[in-house]
Amino acid sequence: MFSRKDIVVLGMMIFALFLGAGNIIFPPMEGFTAGTQWATASFGFVLTGVFMPFITLVVVSVVGRGEVLTRDLPKWAEVIFLATLYLVIGSLFAMPRVTNVAYEMAWVPLSITEDNSHTHLIFSLIFNLVGMLFMLRPNTIISTVGKFMTPALLVLLVVVAVNVILSPLSDIVEPSKAYATNSAMTSGLISGYQTMDVLAAIAFGGIVARALAVRNVSSTQDVMKYTISAGFISVFLLAALYFSLFYLGATSAQVAEGATNGGQIFSRYVNALFGTAGTWIMSGIILLANMTTLVGVTSACADYFSKFHVRLSYSFWVFIFTVLTTTIAQTGLTELLRVTIPALLLIYPVAIMLVFLQIIRHKLPNIKLSYYFTLLITVSFSACDSLKNIDLLPQGVENMLNYLPLYAEGMGWLIPAFIALGLSLFLGKKSA
């Protein structure tokens, strides 16, 4: 039987899995640029950065694993999508970035060692080897992350949040950049969409399902009930954190001058509040947040690839991904970003539509028609966003797409995708 304590531990684990360093350092810049509109902007951010991933998590945990979302696609399309998803959120991009953020924002500021390539390599090795030790015992993830790592992380974040609320550094300034010309709600929604946590939720849903299975919770109703109960804990904690970080950014004018990202604002703010102790607090937050994300994502990736061949086990893939992450982390992030962001722009809309199609799957008159047609249109328009990002989209095509609502914000695929879904429902009923 799953007790209340177990639900709390699972909820803390879900919170920690979603809470990577990017989730901590992104909102402060949004709060700073939103200015006096920070509350409205943060609400929009929470809708797409917390609730959409939560829905995805519940859907995936109920069906058992993220791969089930693609069961109605041709095998080749299923493999391409899932392999790309796991590699992008895993060792080809996100996990090397996690390693580098942990090094640059948590280790280097402590000034314990000299900042050079050798130190970077040693840190990457130790950081990823520690993560691998957790991953090699997957049944302990719920206890190690949920019982120990997350409470420590929460304590540090609460200390920062309380001090920010009680002693804000600056008055709140007027909105700037996109928030000065666009709706704060819309800008916040789009910012939350850019967190890419829906992709992570596809991987984490399987972790939640396995964690429940270890406790002999396997019926659909029980899995849904406990995932929703635990998920609400994560939703509350993440929403509270994002509101706090938006407020931190909104009151950061004193330290935000010249900052190019939210990590710099967060670091300067914490140092201004706590001095030297602030550096250690920030390092603890970043290290714990990155470690939990590394463990959760890489274990999910290893679990997926272990299904391809019986001799290539979960442990084998954990080792391979650890080596790959450590190696790629030694390269510069600029080139890595240039190569992988187009892939993210392509697969993220597909992930959203796969989740939505799964929710309404039992009501589709012709499942394959709806999946094929809707996803074909989604891929076509999201591919335009991807090509635009690398300056390969023909100017004539871009001129036409500029008339499409939400295209400028990188969401031009949304309306065509739902039009295609509507048409597939109509055509499916006609052919039934």
Word description of this protein:
This protein is an all-alpha fold and 432 residues long. It folds into two domains: 4-330, Amino acid/polyamine transporter I; 345-431, no CATH class. Helices cover 76% and strands 0% of the residues. The protein has helices at residues 4-18, 21-34, 38-63, 75-89, 94-107, 117-135, 141-166, 178-181, 184-193, 197-214, 220-250, 253-256, 262-274, 276-305, 314-328, 333-359, 367-389, 395-401, 414-431. The N and C termini lie far apart (44 Å). It is a multi-pass membrane protein.
Question: Helices and strands in order, then pairings?
Answer:
Layout: H1 4-18, H2 21-34, H3 38-63, H4 75-89, H5 94-107, H6 117-135, H7 141-166, H8 178-181, H9 184-193, H10 197-214, H11 220-250, H12 253-256, H13 262-274, H14 276-305, H15 314-328, H16 333-359, H17 367-389, H18 395-401, H19 414-431
Helix pairs in contact: 1-7, 1-10, 1-11, 2-3, 2-11, 2-13, 3-9, 3-10, 3-11, 3-16, 4-14, 4-16, 5-6, 5-14, 6-14, 6-15, 7-11, 7-14, 10-14, 13-14, 14-15, 16-17, 17-19
| Spatial separation of the terminal alpha carbons | 44 Å
Q: What's the CATH H-level superfamily name of the largest domain?
A: Amino acid/polyamine transporter I
Tell me what the CATH architecture of the largest domain is: Up-down Bundle
Oligomer: single chain
N-to-C SSE string, H for helix and E for strand:
HHHHHHHHHHHHHHHHHHH
The CATH C-level name of the largest domain is Mainly Alpha
Q: What is the molecular shape? A: globular
Tell me the CATH topology of the largest domain.
Answer: Amino acid/polyamine transporter I
Characterize the biggest β-sheet. none
As residue ranges, the low-confidence spans are none
Number of domains: 2
Name the average pLDDT. Answer: 86
Cα Rg: 21 Å
Q: Helix proportion of residues, in percent? A: over 70%
Number of helices: 19
Number of strands: 0
- Give the class from helix and strand content and strand pairing: mainly alpha
* Beta-strand content estimate: under 5%
GO molecular function, one term: L-valine transmembrane transporter activity
Subcellular location: Cell inner membrane; Cell membrane
Organism: Rodentibacter heidelbergensis
Pfam families: Branch_AA_trans (PF05525)
